[in-house]
Amino acid sequence: MSSRMPNNGEESAGESEGIWHPAHEWLEEDELDTDYHPAQESEGDDGSEGDLPIEDAAIGMGYTDVDPTHFNIGNIAIEFTSDDFDMSEQPPGPDGGPIRLSATQLFEILASSGLQQILHANGWPTAQEEEQERLAAEQEDNDEDESDEDFLPSYRNRLRARQPGAVAELPPVPNPKGKTLMNDGHFGTNQSYIDRLKQRKKGWASNLMWRELGIDTQGAQKRADQSMLQGFIPASVADRIIHYDSRSYSGQFSDDGNFFFCCAQDFKVRMYDTSNPYDWKYYKTVDYPFGQWTITDATLSPDNRFLVYSSIRSQVYMATTDPEDDSDPTVLDLSTPPGQIRHRSLGSSHFGVWSLRFSGDGREVVAGTSENSVIVYDIETKQRVLNLRDRHQHHVNAVCYGDTSSPHILYSGSDDTTIRVWDRRSMGDGREAGAFMGHTEGLTYVDSKGDGRYVLSNSKDQTMKLWDLRKMMTSADVENLDPLEYTTAFDYRFEPYPEEYRRSAKNDCSVVTFRGHRVLKTLIRCHFSPPGSTNSRYVYSGSEDGKIYVYNMDATLADTIDVGQATMYSRPREPDTYASAYEMSGEMLWRTCVRDASWHPNAPVLAATAWNGWGLSTGTCTVHSWNDGAAKDEGDPPLSWSYDEKLRPIPAFNDYRANAPYGHPRRPLRSRPVRRWVIDEEAEDTIW
User: Fold this and answer.
1) How far is CA 124 from the centre of its chain?
2) Which neighbouring-strand residues pair with 102?
3) Each residue of 7-32: pLDDT tens digit?
4) Rounded CA Rg of the chain
């Protein structure tokens, strides 16, 4: 994320400028805050509704001679119309004054991407072009008084226009390095030689028979028989759809699969008992008092006893998962230096926390912050034991431990496009042990395989990359490179990624690059598939287009899980949808953006956490399971039924979907077969 934060009333150097986000409206010291969204700002200073007369709005733009429903900007004519708001039928304002529009209706018009395209097509500069011109003018003015060394630090962390260079050379698919990893057994097991030769895929019954017989199963064939679940990718159709009245941000299974939690924008974390992955039970809900914008992340202790969760504040909360314990959560203040006692009120904050992870021993939590820092916090002493600052040049959006059995190796992914590798055993100078470079835009997530070697990352450059710790760049090499060389003014929250922005990083040390999913709207997450239920065969990521993309390690697409299709029209459009919508277009279409996904460690079941609904105004958690391509399911309850956050059925939602006024939705599709590549070490790749 990128934000602006106050520092005694001044903007701190090194912070991104020019990008507004509701989460960046930071609090002053000791000031309480409530969730903010532009479309929800309906109160004026005098307590009246925050409506604006059209005439006043036009005059504010420099146009004084206006029709209340129509005005011109150069050669562009803008007329205010709405299907739900007939201005001719509205009563005049006070004293016969101008007609008033609500703030929500103005935002629906002015915040749409369509208006930006209209203006740009008629010669109006985009925000990126204006920023380029402004920077060029300021640099020209400062050249006479300042040297380049004096000037550059002030703008070092700005997102900039794409630097000129050669068009990116896309990595090959299948990727040779990924094929090598698949062949050497690090990621799943390949088909037997006979199956590859005859281009056949064994069914479930055949695999089970050979495993039970145990005849002539040696080497690779034996491993394949033991890991036959690796081919069981969950289907697109949802077993159940859990609805939330606000957007869902993250959701994960516990390491043993007995527990699942889901974080939502209403500052609540819901917990579920998933010891039976096909029959969930509601467990408990905890909340975050005085949260800012949303709950950003949560992490479970290895013993499943405690849940630590964060918002865009320097305080995180730790709650017990015991459903019988209704005590208040414990406050962990990450901004308090060692040896000091927290004295600020709960409403105050110095920075926000974007990412959290428990260490393998459950004693510590590592956090990535909007202060460009990585913080390690001791749970028992409630003290900050490590604060890694001044190495990342932008927000730290993701952190994780490199080894589940050791707290020494840390990874941190930042908007400065780098992944820093920290070794706590050799940090006398406060520098990282090394770094991974190769992304050309900021990172949204990092995940470790847990073996202290392989790391996965998602980026706003629309790629996911696999890294090997043995191939990282040293800190000395990183010092001589500018990680922001390729970053742009591209705003991933509201804009698509232009293909002409794509460049190849000169110092890309990644092993495999995965492409196809869309990292837009929010900090979309990616993961390694679990060793138990998939034999670590895949990597997978959410996507802005409403799907989960599952990749083989050679970068070929194994399958997709279409969450958008599975949830289409699964709830009615409510009257306040406009106020809570993320996309404020007049159409208010049903949209799905899968932000997070979690594969059950022991069963072919996957839970998808998504922004979902009319204008991305609400959220869902959908449960998907493998079904071997069955055309229908005669079980009870029926598939794709809607449930509330406590897993109570919602008959009204089911009835609405069955009689959707927007056209009867198609039956949710099972996962469709995709093009697969047969791997043969001695022959060319073939398709079957």
Assistant:
1) 32
2) none
3) 444 444 344 444 444 444 344 333 33
4) 26
In the predicted model, residues of the chain with pLDDT beneath 50 are 2-73, 82-87, 89, 94, 104-105, 107-109, 111-114, 117-118, 121, 127-128, 143-161, 346-347, 667-688
- Is residue 231 within 8 A of residue 629, CB to CB? The reply is no
SS3 at position 251: strand
3-state secondary structure 625-641: ECCCCCCCCCCCCCCCE
- Written as six digits, the tokens of 354 are 């974007």
Return the ∠ at Cα 56 (arms to 54 and 60), rounded to 5°. 115
* pTM, to two decimals: 0.75
Instruction: Say how many CA atoms lie within 13 Å of 404 toward its Cβ.
Output: 9
| Pair type for strands 641-643 and 240-244 | parallel
Q: Measure the CA–CA gap between 678 and 190, rounded to whole angstroms.
A: 9
Cβ burial 102-136 (10 Å sphere, 16+ → b, else e): bbbbbbbbebbeeebeebeeeeeeeebeebeeeee
With left for phi above 0 and alpha for psi between -120 and 50, is residue 154 left, alpha or beta? Answer: alpha
- The confidence score (pLDDT) of residue 3 equals 42
**Assigned domain for 24 exists:** no
- Separation of CA 627 from chain center: 28
With respect to residue 175, please indicate whether it lies within any of the assigned structural domains.
no
Residue 208: per-residue pLDDT: 64
Q: In this structure, is residue 95 part of a structural domain? A: no
524 part of a folded domain = yes
Letter string b/e over residues 144-172, b meaning 16 or more CB atoms within 10 A of that residue's CB: eeeeeeeeeeeeebbbbbbeeeeebeebe
User: Which stretch of DSSP H or E encloses residue 587?
Assistant: none
Q: Are strands 686-687 and 677-678 parallel, antiparallel or unpaired?
A: antiparallel
- Range 632-639 contact pairs with CB under 8 angstroms and sequence separation of 24 or more: 637/240, 639/237, 639/238, 639/239, 639/240, 639/668
| Burial of residue 341 (number of CB atoms within 10 Å: 0-12, 13-18, 19+) | exposed
**Total domains in the fold of the chain:** 1
Residue 264, domain CATH: 2.130.10.10
Cβ partners under 8 Å of residue 24, min gap 6: 3, 4, 5
Give me the domain span that covers residue 372: 227-658
CA nearest 587: which of 544, 620, 616, 566? 616
> Smallest Cα–Cα separation from 645: which of 669, 665, 627, 618?
618
Which tokens hold the place of 33? 């805050």
User: What is the end-to-end Cα distance of the chain in Å, rounded?
Assistant: 42
Q: Which two tokens stand for residue 644?
A: 């509330």
Closest CA to 520 of 621, 446, 611, 398: 611
DSSP 8-state class, residue 645: T
Give the Cβ contact number of residue 437 at 10 Å.
24
The separation between CA 200 and the C-alpha centre of its own chain, rounded to angstroms, equals 37
Name residues whose C-beta falls within 8 Å of residue 238's C-beta, 6 or more positions apart in sequence. 563, 566, 567, 622, 623, 624, 639, 640, 668
- Cis peptide, bond prior to residue 649, ω within 30 of zero: no
Q: Is the dihedral of CA 259, 263, 264, 270 positive or negative?
A: positive
> Alpha helix (H) ranges present in 461-576?
475-479, 531-534, 563-567
Longest dimension (CA), the chain: 93
| Those residues with Cβ within 8 angstroms of residue 161's Cβ, 6 or more apart along the chain or in another chain | 128, 131, 132, 488, 489
